[in-house]
Each structure stands twice: as structure tokens, then as C-alpha cells.
Design goal:
Length: 253
């Protein structure tokens, strides 16, 4: 299984890569490989078996090409495509039951460029790739926030075309009441509809309800949004189970 952690900047992709790997090794006795595909980071909380920073880093690109951070990101996306064969060879030579891939925080430089679909396609020919889309719980307190945040998940799923599980990370930061509220919204379409209306968005209420209609279908198909915490390890077993189930669900899709 190849698990790609994708999500907005700071949502906890690197932390989840580390804690999910640790959990799989300890609880399942699995062999796990970890991959860093983020050329912009200076630190990763796991020991990478392959690290894109061996090929290039954002810092080096900024320096050598006299670019700002965003220009360097774009250049890095081009370089990822240029080095694709080398990256794919490295990934396919990893000898582990499961490989976890940490992706760049600037997800547009990865998901919406050519490298990600090509990496996913290549992984599909050697194993089972799956995306874990990471939402930050602290940004999803209201019903509307939850819908806005997961819109990017839908875009990612459409773009990459593989089973996608959405996790709500950092739930350790929520009170029990707040977590319960989110769980109710996620699992109960009527509660979500009611919450959207109560949030009083005026003319935007219809837009939010329409988007919810789409998300509601996607969430039903992919079961749920799973609450997890990379910090405490909460939800790791459920994530493992969902990763395995996702392939059956995808078949139904
Ligand atoms: N409380 C809490 N903090 C978390 C959790 N997961 C990540 N963090 C914190 O959130 C911040 C960002 O975590 P990262 O794992 O670097 O997130 P990322 O998505 O890899 O970030 P970028 O690669 O920069 O986009 C760090 O300060 C982490 O310690 C969690 O489950 N709970
Ligand atoms: Mg990261």
C-alpha cells in the first residue's frame, strides 16, 4: 500500500506520516518506508527512506535561480517532473510492505501539477496507491468551514482519481463538545443542513447547501471523515482499517 498524505499547509501531513508509520510498525509489526516529497522543508519528523531534498531544495533553487519562495515552488514542481523517472525508480525499489509519502504543504505545486498524477499512476502499476487528505480540525469548527476545507479534498480526489480518505487531524486540540459537534455534522446530513442554515450566511446559504449536497454524496461514498491526532496517535487503527477498506469502497464508486 502506498499512502500519500496530502493537505493544506500545516495540516499535519509530516506529523501524520511519522505517527502512522510508527503505529504500523509497533502495532502491526509491519515494515514501513517513509518518503519525503517536500523540497521546501528543513525538518521531517521521520527518517526518510527517500528524500526529494537529495535532488533539490527550495532554498537551493531560490539561491541559484534568484527566485522568491513562490517562484522557487513553481520551479521545484518543474524539477519534480524532470526527475520523475529517478523518483519513481527510487520509490519502486523500496522494500517495505507499506510506503508513506509526505507531500508539499503548497499542495497546488504538487496536486495541480503534472508530477502528482504521474507518480500516482506509476505507483498504481506497482502497488495500491491511496490518498489520505488531511484537514486541520482547528480550521473546521463551523459547518461552512468544514465544507470549504473539504472542497479541496474533492478537487484532489478528482485530480488524482484514486481512493481518498479524509482525516480531520489535531482533534486533540478540540474540546469534547466541539469534537462531538463535528462528528454529528459529518455523520448526519440533516444536522449539517440545519447548521448551515443557522450560520446565517445570507445569499451564500444556497451555495453552501449546494456544495454540501455534493460533499454529502462523496462523504457517504467514502464513509466518513475520520478524526485523528498525529500528536496522541488517536485514530491510527481506524485509519489503517479505512486504508484497506477504501479499495472495496472505490470498487462500489
Ligand atoms: N496539537 C496537534 N498539533 C499537531 C498535530 N499534527 C501536527 N501538529 C502540529 O501542526 C504543525 C504542522 O505540522 P506538520 O506535520 O509540519 O504539518 P504539514 O502539513 O506537514 O506542514 P507543511 O508541510 O509545512 O505544510 C506542527 O506544529 C505540528 O506539531 C496534532 O495531531 N495535534
Ligand atoms: Mg510537512
Amino acid at each position: 500500500m502506498y499512502v500519500l498524505f496530502v493537505g493544506m499547509a500545516g495540516s499535519g501531513k509530516s506529523s501524520l506520516t511519522a505517527s502512522f508509520a510508527e503505529w504500523m510498525m509497533e502495532a502491526m509489526g509491519a515494515t514501513v518506508g517513509c518518503v519525503n516529497l517536500d523540497p521546501g522543508c528543513t525538518y521531517v519528523p521521520f527518517k526518510p527512506d527517500f528524500d526529494i531534498r537529495k535532488l533539490f531544495t527550495i532554498g537551493e533553487i531560490m539561491e541559484s535561480e534568484r527566485l522568491g519562495p513562490n517562484g522557487a515552488m513553481i520551479r521545484a514542481a518543474e524539477l519534480m517532473e524532470k526527475h520523475l523517472e529517478e523518483i519513481l525508480n527510487a520509490l519502486s525499489s523500496l522494500k517495505a510492505e507499506h510506503v508513506l509519502l509526505d507531500t508539499p504543504g503548497q499542495m497546488e505545486m504538487f496536486v495541480f501539477r503534472e508530477a502528482a498524477p504521474r507518480i500516482v499512476e506509476a505507483l498504481g502499476s506497482i502497488g495500491r496507491p491511496i490518498v489520505v487528505y488531511v484537514l486541520d480540525a482547528s480550521l473546521a469548527r463551523r459547518a461552512t468551514d468544514l465544507i470549504v476545507a473539504s472542497t479541496l479534498m474533492v478537487a484532489t480526489q478528482l485530480r488524482l482519481g484514486i481512493p481518498t480518505i479524509t482525516v480531520l487531524n489535531k482533534v486533540d486540540m478540540l474540546s469534547e463538545v466541539a469534537l462531538k459537534k463535528i462528528e454529528t455534522l459529518i455523520s448526519n446530513p440533516k444536522a449539517m443542513e440545519k447548521a448551515i442554515i443557522e450560520e446565517g450566511l445570507g445569499a451564500m446559504t444556497d451555495l453552501a447547501l449546494g456544495l454540501w449536497g455534493i460533499h454529502g454524496k462523496v462523504w457517504k461514498a467514502s464513509s466518513l471523515i475520520l478524526p485523528v491526532s498525529a500528536k496522541t496517535g488517536y485514530g491510527m487503527e481506524a485509519l489503517y482499517d479505512l486504508c484497506h477498506e477504501a479499495f472495496c469502497v472505490c470498487g462500489e464508486l
